[in-house]
């Protein structure tokens, strides 16, 4: 069987439609088998019970980093923020996996100019902003 791309998408009740649109865009454009799993914070109550701080604009701000744990530390998985669209084939991203690295991301210089973002959330400005929006673990 072909390699299966495991994709975890951050899920927040305020962005339900965004989650489904991203999942649909991945499946619609994929040439390889793909599994899609939402990272839902309330489903992690048995092992993750951290209170949400004012620095977290979504429920998955920190739970995204549990992706390797959720995979049993086996194989590769991708994490994506839910507010994206997959316009190309996930196979192209999946082919970039490199066993020399524990995690892969795009390092880019992003400096938000607005003080608020989607749903009136505070736009926290910090170095390496959005580096964790798409990651391969």
Q: What are the key terms here?
A:
137 residues, alpha/beta, 5-stranded mixed β-sheet, 3 helices, 5 strands, 15% strand
Percent helix, as a range, is 10-25%
Q: State the end-to-end CA separation.
A: 21 Å
- The DSSP helix count reads 3
What is the CA-atom radius of gyration, in angstroms?
15 Å
SS-derived structural category: alpha/beta
Uncertain runs: none
Main β-sheet, spatial strand arrangement: 2-1-3-5-4
What is the count of β-strands?
5
Mean pLDDT across residues: 87
Instruction: Tell me the domain tally.
Output: 1
What percentage of amino acids are in beta strands?
Answer: 5-15%
Coarse morphology = globular
H and E string: EHEHEHEE
Structure description:
With 137 residues, the protein is of the alpha/beta class. The chain has one domain. It has three helices and five strands. The chain has helices at residues 16-29, 67-70, 90-94; strands at 5-10, 34-39, 78-80, 104-105, 134-136. Helix 1 (16-29) links the parallel strand 1 and strand 2. It starts with a strand and ends with a strand.
Question: Care to give the gist of this entry?
Answer:
By secondary structure, the protein is α/β, with parallel strands linked by helices.
SSE topology sketch:
Elements: E1 5-10, H1 16-29, E2 34-39, H2 67-70, E3 78-80, H3 90-94, E4 104-105, E5 134-136
Parallel strand pairs: 1-2, 1-3
Antiparallel strand pairs: 3-5, 4-5
């Amino acid at each position: 069987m072909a390699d299966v791309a495991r994709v975890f998408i951050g899920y927040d009740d305020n962005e339900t439609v965004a989650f489904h649109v991203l999942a649909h865009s991945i499946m619609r454009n994929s040439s390889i088998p793909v599994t899609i799993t939402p990272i839902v914070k309330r489903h992690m109550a048995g092992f993750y019970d951290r209170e949400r701080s004012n620095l977290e604009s979504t429920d998955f701000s920190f739970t995204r980093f549990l992706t390797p744990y959720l995979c049993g530390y086996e194989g590769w998985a991708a994490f994506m923020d839910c507010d994206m669209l997959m316009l190309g084939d996930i196979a192209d991203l999946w082919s970039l996996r490199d066993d020399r690295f524990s995690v892969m991301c795009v390092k880019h210089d992003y400096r938000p100019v607005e003080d608020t973002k989607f749903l009136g959330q505070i736009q926290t400005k910090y170095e390496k902003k959005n580096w964790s929006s798409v990651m391969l673990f």
